[in-house]
C-alpha cells in the first residue's frame, strides 16, 4: 500500500519550489508591465492594457489546463505551461527591443497562460490531502510565491541595468527573469512531480469516501449552481479584482509623483510579501476556524487597505496599504480555494477549478482595463475607493449562503 502522507509531502514540496521559481519571473514582469504599456504607446490610459492581456492569457489558459490536466495529467500539464511561459518571455523581450506593442501583448498572453497553470498547482496540493489538511496544503504552495514575491521585484533594477549594458532597453531586462526561472521550473516539475498527482487524488478519495461530497461526476452547469461553489467562486473572483486594480496602477501612480524605480519595486515587494508570506497562517486558520470566518477576515482587511491607499502619495502609506491589500487577498484566496475543493468529487476537480480561474481572470482583466481609465479620469483615490466597495461582495455572498441554509 502506498505511503500517501509521504507522497503528499513530496508533491507539495515540488509544487512549492516550482511556485517559488516561476513567481519570481511573473512578479518581476508584472512590476513593469504598466510602465512598458505607457512607454510603447505614449498614453497613460493604456497602462492597464498589458496587465489585462496578461490576465486574459491566464483566463484562457485556466480553462485549457482545467480540461487537459484531466487527460494528460498534472505533471505534463504544469511542465507544458512553463514552456509556453518561456516562449512568451522571449517574445516580450524582443517586442520591447523592437518597440512593438502588439507583439508585447502577444508575449504577455503566453506568459499569462503559464501563470494559469502554476496557479492551479494549489488545487493539485489539495487533492492529494484529506479535507482536514487541505487549507494548509494550499497555503504551502501559495507560500512558495513568497520567494518570488521578494526576489522578483528586487531583480527589476539590476536586470534593467544588465539590459542597458547589453545595449537593450532597460525595460526589457525584467522579462529575462521569466525566461530563466521558467526553464528551471519546467525541469523541476518533470523530474520531481512523481507519482502522478491526479492518480493519487483518485486513490485517496476512493479510500476515504467521506472526502468528497458526491462520487458521481456532475455537469459543470450543475456544479456551479451549488451554493458552496458560488460562495467560493465569488470570493476568489472579487478578491482578485480588489487586489489587482490598485496593484496594476501603483507603479504608474508612483512614477507620476516622482518615485524612483527602486521605490516602486519596494512597494510591490511589500505587497507581494503580504500576498504570500503569511500563507501558512491563513492555511492553519482555514483548517481550524473554518472557511467562512477567514473569508470574512480577508474581505475586511482588503476594505481597510483600499481606504488607506485612496489618499496616499508617499512611500510609507503606500507600503502599508499595499501590504495589507496582499494580506487580505491571501486570507480570502486560500479560504476560498479550500472551500471550492471541499465541494468537488475527484473527476469534477480539474474542470471546475479551471472554470473558476477562468472567471477569476476574466474579471481581473476587465478590472485592470477599467483601472487605467478610472485612474486617468478620477485618479488613484477614486480607483481605490471603488476597490473597497468591491470587497464587500464576498461578505454579501456569505450572508446569502447562511440565509439559504436556514
Features:
406 residues; 18 helices; globular; mainly alpha; Growth Hormone, Chain: A
Note down, in words, how this protein is organized.
- It is a single chain.
- The protein has helices at 4-41, 49-72, 74-98, 101-119, 121-127, 131-143, 145-154, 156-165, 174-192, 197-207, 220-223, 227-256, 261-276, 279-289, 291-309, 315-342, 346-390, 393-405.
- Helix 2 runs antiparallel to helix 17.
- The longest helix has 45 residues, at 346-390.
- The chain starts with a helix and ends with a helix.
- The chain is globular, with a radius of gyration of 20 Å.
- The protein has a single domain (4-405), classed as MFS general substrate transporter like domains (Growth Hormone, Chain: A), CATH 1.20.1250.20.
- It is mainly α and 406 residues long.
Amino acid at each position: 500500500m502506498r505511503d500517501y502522507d509521504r507522497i503528499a509531502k513530496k508533491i507539495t514540496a515540488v509544487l512549492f519550489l516550482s511556485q517559488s521559481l516561476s513567481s519570481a519571473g511573473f512578479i518581476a514582469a508584472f512590476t513593469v508591465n504598466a510602465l512598458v504599456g505607457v512607454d510603447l504607446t505614449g498614453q497613460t490610459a493604456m497602462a492597464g492594457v498589458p496587465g489585462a492581456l496578461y490576465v486574459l492569457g491566464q483566463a484562457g489558459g485556466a480553462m485549457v489546463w482545467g480540461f487537459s490536466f484531466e487527460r494528460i495529467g498534472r505533471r505534463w500539464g504544469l511542465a507544458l505551461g512553463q514552456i509556453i511561459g518561456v516562449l512568451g518571455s522571449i517574445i516580450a523581450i524582443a517586442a520591447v527591443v523592437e518597440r512593438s506593442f502588439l507583439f508585447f501583448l502577444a508575449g504577455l498572453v503566453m506568459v499569462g497562460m503559464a501563470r494559469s497553470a502554476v496557479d492551479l498547482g494549489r488545487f493539485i496540493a489539495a487533492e492529494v490531502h484529506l479535507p482536514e489538511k487541505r487549507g494548509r496544503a494550499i497555503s504551502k504552495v501559495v507560500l512558495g510565491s513568497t520567494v518570488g514575491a521578494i526576489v522578483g521585484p528586487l531583480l527589476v533594477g539590476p536586470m534593467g541595468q544588465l539590459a542597458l549594458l547589453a545595449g537593450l532597453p532597460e525595460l526589457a531586462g525584467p522579462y529575462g527573469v521569466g525566461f530563466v526561472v521558467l526553464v528551471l521550473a519546467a525541469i523541476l516539475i518533470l523530474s520531481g512531480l512523481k507519482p502522478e498527482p491526479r492518480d493519487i487524488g483518485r486513490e485517496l478519495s476512493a479510500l476515504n469516501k467521506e472526502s468528497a461530497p458526491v462520487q458521481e461526476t456532475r455537469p459543470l452547469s450543475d456544479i456551479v449552481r451549488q451554493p458552496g461553489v458560488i460562495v467560493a467562486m465569488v470570493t476568489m473572483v472579487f478578491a482578485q479584482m480588489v487586489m489587482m486594480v490598485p496593484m496594476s496602477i501603483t507603479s504608474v501612480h508612483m512614477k507620476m509623483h516622482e518615485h524612483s524605480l527602486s521605490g516602486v519595486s519596494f512597494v510591490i515587494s511589500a505587497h507581494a510579501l503580504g500576498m504570500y508570506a503569511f500563507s501558512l497562517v491563513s492555511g492553519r486558520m482555514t483548517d481550524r476556524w473554518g472557511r467562512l470566518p477567514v473569508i470574512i477576515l480577508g474581505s475586511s482587511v482588503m476594505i481597510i487597505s483600499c481606504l488607506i491607499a485612496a489618499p496616499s502619495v508617499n512611500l510609507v502609506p503606500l507600503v502599508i496599504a499595499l501590504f495589507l491589500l496582499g494580506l487580505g487577498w491571501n486570507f480570502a484566496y486560500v479560504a476560498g480555494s479550500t472551500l471550492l475543493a471541499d465541494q468537488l468529487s475527484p473527476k469534477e476537480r480539474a474542470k471546475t477549478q479551471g472554470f473558476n480561474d477562468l472567471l477569476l481572470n476574466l474579471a481581473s482583466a476587465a478590472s485592470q482595463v477599467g483601472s487605467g481609465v478610472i485612474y486617468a479620469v478620477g485618479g488613484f483615490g477614486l480607483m481605490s475607493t471603488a476597490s473597497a466597495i468591491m470587497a464587500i461582495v464576498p461578505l454579501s455572498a456569505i450572508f446569502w449562503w447562511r440565509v439559504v441554509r436556514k
